Amino acid sequence: MTSMHASSPVPVASTVPALARVSMALGAGLLAGVLTSYGQGVDGLSTLSNAAGPWFVVAIALLLLMRVRGGRLGLPAAMAAGVVVLELMHVGYWATSNLRGFPDVLAITNFWVLMALPAGALAGGVAVALRSADGRWRAAACGVTAAVLVGEGVRCLLRVAATTGTATWVVEIVVGVAVLVAGVVLARSPLGRVVALGTGVLGTVGVLAAYLVAGG
User: Fold this and answer.
1) Minimal CA–CA distance to 96: which of 43, 41, 22?
2) Is the separation of the CB atoms in 173 and 149 below 8 Å?
3) Under a CB-based contact definition with an 8 Å cutoff, are residues 202 and 195 in contact?
4) How crowded is residue 56: how many other Cβ atoms within 10 Å of its Cβ?
5) pLDDT tens, residue order, the chain (216 aa)
6) Helices in 131-160 by DSSP H: which ranges?
7) What is the gyration radius of the CA atoms in the chain, in angstroms?
């Protein structure tokens, strides 16, 4: 009889074909859009469901599920995949909202549809950087992610807190700061810590400025 322990177990992730991982991630992107539409009607979730930061984080998570890689061809592919994932979220949200009787228009001129282009490309870059063997790239990825969360949180405290309350935005800022601290703490070199802090602080200013310039 063959022993149950005759060979080392194979990690489940390594047995999932690449096409299946891509399909799962794209399907989950659509589902995220569907859940966002429903979440906007739930007390306690409505404000969070109107935030862009969580979508950015979800996109990164789904790209990590795809196991995107860097390189001359891998990075552009990952950035394109990020755009596709975010736009699929929009499609899921648009279709669900209309089916629920809340008219929504999905057009190329829509602010969030347009923003999905740079945001999706950035999410792809972050996902690749998080899988890099170079600690400086991982630190930069943490800084960028923190910047998106903190930048949006600050913008919303300045512009919409009077109608939405402050709790969601304070939590988003706290999570963003926690991501930045994790990037600094886990950096393996002084340069990595500087990269994390630099991308986090400068990125936050950039995200906030982009929102304010766009009138969002």
Assistant:
1) 41
2) yes
3) no
4) 23
5) 344 444 444 454 558 888 899 999 999 999 999 999 999 989 888 999 989 999 999 999 999 999 888 777 889 999 999 999 999 999 999 999 999 999 888 888 888 899 899 999 999 999 999 999 889 999 999 999 999 999 999 999 999 988 889 999 999 999 999 999 999 998 889 999 999 999 999 999 999 998 888 765
6) 135-159
7) 19
pTM over 0.90: no
Q: What is the DSSP letter of 7?
A: S
- Which residues contact residue 80 at a Cβ distance below 8 angstroms, ignoring those fewer than 6 apart? 121, 124
Residues in the chain: 216
Segment (H or E) for 14? helix 12-15
Residue 149 three-state SS: helix
